[in-house]
């Protein structure tokens, strides 16, 4: 199958004709989205959002209002099109189809920290029959920073411009989605590059991840309501931004130990907050051996403190030996495969985790 990049201005991907009667296909959404009665579509900002539908029709129209993101469109499990910055446009795709119906999956692969994308839905001919979207029993959540986003993971070089970071970030190839897909699990990628537990990269201002995690969008207004979301496994990878740079004189922590203490206390509180919302989930804390082992040591202390306070479902995975060949020395796609392997080895050894709901 020939793969094509599809831009909003591409004539071969014509806007659907008004003369053709259309019906909205029911679809399944993965990740945090905001809907409203006043505006059509599903607004999103977190990485790794995906949409799925199925139909026995021979064509499908995708409608967008999104000027910033790149999407991958899969047809029956195979990559079919890459849609780049669609804007406000409709894209109709025709194909031969098959006797058993066709499954479409649209995945957002870019990070959009300051812009909100919107997917308006899948549409097909009114005469076509819709097939119910998938219903999955397994759910897994990934909470983290740029490592979890897949920041610049497809880049062939470490030194990248801002545009190159955007173009080479592919969350679908990050370790989170790779892990979830290995178990046919629904997933959320609740990660934001540059943010930490108590301190963001190089002391930059802005909400830290535990604060951002409360919201559907990054506006600090739309509180996330976890309807139908009760993951059996929650993977957290936070600490690189807290510790990878030196403290500045104007930051609130006067010593490195002050920062470490604040980090540990806040991290423990964050996990306890998540536990209250997810009483049966298994927590997996992930940490690299970077920064002279500082991240590793602090995360291990967080695990130790949680267990001393009665938490029984928490473990830590320390990773080492990555090539960090992505943009700005971030994990590459090869590293993501290694990280996925560490997680699947852990989960495979504990199959009962999936029965915890």
Can you walk through the features of this model?
With 357 residues, the protein is an alpha/beta fold. It folds into two domains: 4-131, Jelly Rolls (Sandwich); 139-355, SGNH hydrolase (Rossmann fold, 3-Layer(aba) Sandwich), CATH 3.40.50. It has eight helices and 17 strands. It has helices at residues 146-149, 162-168, 175-182, 209-212, 240-243, 256-277, 294-308, 333-348; strands at 4-7, 22-24, 28-30, 42-44, 50-55, 59-66, 70-75, 78-84, 87-94, 102-108, 117-125, 130-131, 139-144, 186-191, 233-237, 282-288, 314-319. The strands form three sheets. Strands 1, 3, 5, 7, 8, 10 and 12 form a seven-stranded mixed beta sheet that branches. β7 (70-75) and β8 (78-84) form a beta hairpin. The two termini are 40 Å apart. Residues 7-19 have low confidence and may be disordered.
